[in-house]
């Protein structure tokens, strides 16, 4: 992996607020906690640690938000991959219930943090819709709605007529609307979070890859090309960009590319026709397609991507075609950006927290839901780092294990994406 890389081209690189100053580490420094990776996981952990008076140094290979956090769909979605009943069945009535409460409330953590630190990032708490276009998925949405109602969640079940009105297209049979969701400009959010952390006393170093970590007495030492950090504790949040810094970690997750195409701003009257509600939408299907309108009326369509870097809308032409099939009236408008990035998935589709050594906390793999979840994990990681017991953390802390036959997984994921597309196309 190269020492560090410039921010790849994307809509957000052109529109987000400017970055905070984050010069590389210079010499040998000391802090109570060293955080490795400045995406939402690392930044939120650092910010919540600093809020409690802890001195923190963040080391980022490139710049804050360079990874998935600065390139994603910007959808602030509540919940985990599995529905609440399944989570409670998998983890029992105590931990399961806390996981559900924390994960489904995660968007409120995002929007509260944005309000508290006055982060300029086009934030809009306009809801998230989980939309269904295949009859065999309708029961799943109805069940999710019933589970949400039973827990007092702010959810609505939208039928075909309501979806036609909210999306301006005939495609959907129904959807679950959760009013806690919404969207942000994610690079603006990451940069704003870095600045908020700095204002609380966190030192953030960009261009500072952690190349080696070792124990020295009761401390941890982290080496970068330009210095070292000595810290009592480490937090690692490197997600889909995890390298071989910590043994076994890279092979405990599968990095997968997702891609996005963005249009030029469309006229307000057409925006009102196609998405008057302005919620974030993701489809329930074998391969997730997700989309939204941003504050300037650009359409952002996300989903399947080549499993290597891309840089133009033509590289994700299928998403442009898909949008034009949904709303033929947008055909005259240009598509200006196309990009992608890597997220981390796990075979069980749960986020993974590990403590592979004393004082070391790892949190990775939000399985495509990290905008809200990685932010909400920040306070949890801070609590555990500052001595909270495992039982106080609203996620299981598990052993770090490599995925067997890891090398085959990338191929399997690519095949799965193709298979899923075919199945969705055939409606089976
Ligand atoms: C195209 C795309 C669309 C997505 N859409 C959505 C969406 O709409 N909604 C949603 O909830 N989620 C979405 N996701 C997922 C979401 O973006 C991620 O789950 C989330 O950003 C993960 O945050 P993170 O901080 O854990 O990781 P990242 O943001 O990937 O940050 C990891 C950081 O670690 C740094 N790093 C790695 N190794 C080292 C090292 N050795 N030393 C120092 N630094 C290092 C990297 O440079 C990187 O900046 C999407 C992801 C992608 C790629």
What does this structure look like?
With about 425 residues, the protein is an alpha/beta fold. It contains 11 helices and 19 strands. The protein has helices spanning about 10-15, 40-50, 85-105, 105-115, 140-150, 160-165, 185-200, 270-275, 315-325, 370-385, 405-425; strands at about 25-35, 55-60, 75, 130, 155-160, 175-180, 180-185, 205, 210-215, 220-225, 225-235, 255-265, 280-285, 290-295, 300-305, 335-345, 350-355, 360-365, 395-400. The strands form 3 sheets. Strands 1, 2, 8, 9, 10, 11, 17, 18 and 19 form a 9-stranded mixed sheet that branches. It has an 8-stranded mixed sheet with strand order 5-6-4-13-14-15-12-16, sandwiched between helices. β1, α2 and β2 form a beta-alpha-beta unit. α4 (about 105-115) packs across α10 (about 370-385). It binds flavin-adenine dinucleotide (FAD).
Question: What's this model, at a glance?
Answer:
The chain is α/β, with parallel strands linked by helices and 428 residues long. The protein has helices spanning 11-15, 40-51, 84-104, 106-116, 138-150, 160-167, 186-199, 268-274, 317-326, 370-385, 406-426; strands at 27-36, 56-59, 75-76, 128-132, 155-159, 174-178, 182-183, 203-205, 212-216, 219-224, 227-236, 254-263, 280-284, 290-293, 299-303, 335-345, 352-357, 360-364, 397-398.
Layout of helices and strands, plus pairs?
Elements (H helix, E strand, L loop, with lengths): L10 H5 L11 E10 L3 H12 L4 E4 L15 E2 L7 H21 L1 H11 L11 E5 L5 H13 L4 E5 H8 L6 E5 L3 E2 L2 H14 L3 E3 L6 E5 L2 E6 L2 E10 L17 E10 L4 H7 L5 E5 L5 E4 L5 E5 L13 H10 L8 E11 L6 E6 L2 E5 L5 H16 L11 E2 L7 H21 L2
Parallel strand pairs: 1-2, 1-11, 2-8, 4-13, 11-18, 17-19
Antiparallel strand pairs: 3-7, 4-6, 5-6, 9-10, 10-11, 12-15, 12-16, 13-14, 14-15, 17-18
Helix pairs in contact: 2-7, 2-10, 4-10
The site of flavin-adenine dinucleotide has 45 residues, from α2, β12, β16 and α10.
């Amino acid at each position: 992996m190269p020492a560090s890389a410039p921010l790849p081209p994307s809509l957000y690189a052109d529109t987000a607020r400017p970055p905070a100053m984050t010069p590389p580490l210079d010499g040998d420094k000391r802090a109570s906690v060293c955080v490795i990776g400045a995406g939402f996981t690392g930044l939120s952990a650092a910010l919540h640690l600093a809020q409690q008076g802890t001195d923190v140094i963040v080391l980022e290979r490139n710049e804050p938000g360079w990874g998935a956090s600065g390139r994603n769909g910007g959808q602030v979605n509540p919940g985990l991959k599995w529905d609440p009943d399944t989570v409670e069945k998998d983890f029992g009535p105590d931990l399961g219930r806390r996981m559900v409460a924390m994960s489904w409330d995660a968007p409120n953590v995002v929007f509260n943090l944005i309000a508290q630190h006055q982060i300029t990032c086009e934030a809009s708490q306009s809801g998230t819709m989980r939309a269904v276009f295949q009859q065999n998925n309708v029961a799943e949405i109805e069940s999710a709605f019933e589970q949400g109602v039973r827990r007092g969640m702010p959810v609505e079940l939208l039928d075909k007529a309501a979806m036609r009105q909210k999306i301006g297209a005939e495609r959907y049979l129904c959807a679950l609307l959760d009013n806690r969701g919404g969207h942000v400009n994610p690079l603006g959010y990451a940069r704003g979070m870095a600045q908020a952390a700095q204002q609380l006393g966190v030192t953030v170093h960009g261009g500072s890859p952690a190349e080696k970590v070792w124990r020295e007495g009761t401390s941890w030492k982290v080496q970068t090309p330009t210095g070292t950090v000595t810290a009592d504790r480490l937090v690692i949040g490197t997600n889909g960009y995890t390298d071989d810094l910590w043994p076994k970690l890279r092979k405990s997750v599968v990095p997968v590319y997702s891609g996005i195409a963005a249009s030029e701003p469309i006229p307000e009257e057409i925006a009102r026709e196609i998405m008057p509600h302005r919620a974030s939408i993701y489809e329930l299907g074998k391969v997730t397609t997700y989309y939204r309108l941003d504050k300037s009326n650009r359409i952002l369509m996300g989903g399947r991507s080549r499993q290597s870097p891309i840089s133009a809308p033509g590289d994700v032409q299928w998403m442009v075609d898909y949008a034009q099939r949904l709303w033929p009236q947008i055909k005259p408008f240009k598509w200006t950006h196309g990009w992608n990035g890597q997220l981390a998935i796990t075979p069980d589709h749960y986020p993974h927290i590990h403590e592979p050594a004393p004082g070391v906390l790892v949190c990775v793999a939000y399985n495509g839901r990290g905008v809200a979840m990685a932010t909400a994990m920040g306070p949890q990681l801070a609590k555990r780092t500052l001595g909270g017991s495992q039982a106080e953390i609203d996620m299981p802390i598990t052993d770090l294990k490599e995925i067997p036959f890891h090398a085959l997984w990338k191929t399997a994921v690519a095949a799965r994406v193709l298979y899923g597309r075919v199945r969705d196309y055939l409606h089976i």
